[in-house]
Amino acid sequence: MNAPAFSTGAIPTMVSTGRRKLVNVRQRSLLVAKLRTLWILGVFALVGGLALTRICWLGITGPGGRDGDLSGLLVPHRGEIVDRNGVPLAREFNTYSLWFNPKAMSEGSALIHTPEQVADGLIRIFPDLNRAELIAKLRSDKPGYLRKTILPEDANKVHALGEPALEYPMEATRYYPQGSLAASVLGYVDTYGKGQVGMEEAFDKQLTSAEGRAHPSVLSIDFRVQSALEEELARGMALSKAKGAAGVILDVDSGEILGLASLPSFDPNHVQPSDLMITPEQAAQGDVPHGFNRVTNQVYELGSTFKPITVAAALDAGTITDLRRRWSAAPLHVAGFTIHDLHNYGSSLNVLETLIHSSNVVTAQIADELGGVRLKKTMESLAMNERPYVELPARGFPLWPRGDWPRLRTMTVSYGHGIAVTPLHLASAYAALVNGGIWRPATLKKLDAAQIPAGRRVFTAATSARIRQLLRMIVSYGTGRKADAPGFRVGGKTGSAEKPGAGGYRHHSLIATFAAAFPMDRPRYVVIAMMDEPQGTEATSFQRTAAWNAAPVIQRVVPRIGPLLGIMPDETRDIDVSDLKPLIPAGGAEE
Question: Which residues form the Penicillin-binding protein transpeptidase domain (predicted)?
């Protein structure tokens, strides 16, 4: 059988065609793979290029560094306030709060137990909570605080109640480690984190700035001095049953305030509505809220404390040239008004006797010779016609007689009636009286030597030297004897004035003030103590005047603060008053 005949070229042709197809498939697959790889590489290159471009752009136009951002994580939201020695007065820390969240349960009632049961459980933890108010809040659908600032152990007790609606978030809280001390200076921070009333309000932007958060804000206040001032004012209030008190301690050469107190005070850690508002009935009785600053925001007729200012103005003007000169002490009748003294001090008085006895009659005659124009100019130079110079936001405007002062107005202003200013006005004026005659604005900021303002001259250095002698003799021999602190050479002047009311002066309501400086041979500090409506008590020998209630505060506070401020008692030293001793009357006086 013959084998089939095959074409000699058939087999190679078929094999060659199949191989070409396989090669083409492989090449096409490799090409697709290469293209895909190139696409992927292109995408990566594009992303990398964009990222590199972004990095370069940020490097050129972005912020210079991140130090500020990193440090911001380590500093509080609100800066610290410290006294002049670095003692913390206000700071921030994180604490738990008790929050009611009625939406904590997705279905059904917000509470597992009844509002009454929950309220009873909370009162066992916090006994001071009001049950009725608490139940009302728990029944409402409004979220809110049930209590601010709770201890961690109390948070655990709340957790044990088993109520999901009772939450205790960790929050930044403003804390005042000294309690109510210097509350009138510091103020407080409200629930929105805004400073209110005191330096918290005045420094609000500073305390929340990057610089203020990183570094404490330093006040001129000395914690130790402030404590002594508040304690002695509170003691004076209690002894005289006064409704209020105020005091300030001022550096006579710089204007720095080392202590400022207004009593009754409040606790800035727990501010109550009654601290900020009073009823109309209370206002009618002359009361003010505890948060009201009597030193900077309330104006008073400060009475006889103005008499040394009048005498200083007359000495400068040359209307008093001889301290031995005598004026009639008989009641003075002017424009249908009679000016008289508290007691009969004799037929005539010289300048020293006038201040020692605190004579309205002779002071009025001295002012009459001085004239209203010159007395008014002196008062304006002491900034008595402006709000007090201090950083606090609450600053009272004086009751200032405008226009030309008629004769009677000039006379009454000379002994502190018919013009009303704050105790801080008086402190700055007395600083000018004793420091050589320079008035400087008061400040609550600690000042370096280079920051002390030059001030303006009000009195000559010679007049200031003479006033220092006169003030010292008032304390040694006159109405200010109960302010004398052995070894500290205190000088000063009493002032007692009736408070005005709706129908004129309220004869049974006094403002009793003592304005002092020490040591008088080289004055360093002014101290003002004021009692609002003191009563005659056994502790004050049933007297209501400044000699019996404000002056003793000075006597107690000066020995406490003197050593703290570097002034040690020295009974071998005193201001030289030998040229004035022949003018001293036989007896003293009490105002």
Answer: 247-543
Measured CA angle at 589 (ends 568, 513), to 5 deg? 60
Instruction: Note the residue count of the chain.
Output: 591
Helix pair 407-414, 360-370: axis angle to 10 deg: 130
Taking Cα atoms as reference points, which of 167, 330, 201, 184 lies closest to residue 244? 184
C-alpha span between 252 and 519 (Å, rounded): 11
b vs e for 26-59, b when ≥16 Cβ sit within 10 Å of the residue's Cβ?
A: eeeeeeeeeeeeeeeeeeeeeeeeeeeeeeeeee
Dig out the tokens for 109 from the structure.
Answer: 């009632």
Say how far apart CA 248 and CA 424 lie, in whole Å. 7
- What's the Cα-to-Cα distance from 356 to each of 351, 429, 492, rounded to whole Å? 9, 20, 10
Neighbouring residues of 385: CB distance < 8 A, sequence distance ≥ 6: 379, 398, 400
d(CA 556, CA 214): 39
Q: Report d(CA 292, CA 307) in Å as an integer.
A: 28
pLDDT band at 55 (very low <50, low <70, confident <90, very high): confident
How are beta strands 81-82 and 217-218 bridged, if at all? Answer: parallel
183, 266 Cβ separation under 8 angstroms:
yes
Q: Which pairs with CB-CB distance under 8 Å and at least 24 residues apart come from 575-582?
A: 575/468, 575/469, 575/472, 575/489, 575/491, 575/520, 575/521, 576/469, 576/521, 577/469, 577/472, 577/473, 577/476, 580/323, 580/352, 580/469, 580/470, 580/473
pTM of the model: 0.82
Q: Is residue 210 within 8 Å of residue 72, measured between CB atoms?
A: yes
CA 498 – CA 518 distance, rounded (Å): 28
DSSP state of 383: T
Residues 81-129: tens digit of each pLDDT: 999 999 999 999 888 889 999 888 777 788 888 999 999 999 999 998 9
Distance (Å, rounded) from C-alpha 355 to C-alpha 345?
Answer: 12
Are the C-beta atoms of 555 and 502 separated by less than 8 Å? Answer: no
Cβ–Cβ under 8 Å, residues 295 and 424? yes
- Residues belonging to the active site: 304
Integer Cα distance of 294 and 44 in angstroms: 73
In degrees rounded to 5, what are phi and psi of residue 526? -100, 140
Sequence-ordered strand ranges (E) for 341-437: 348-349
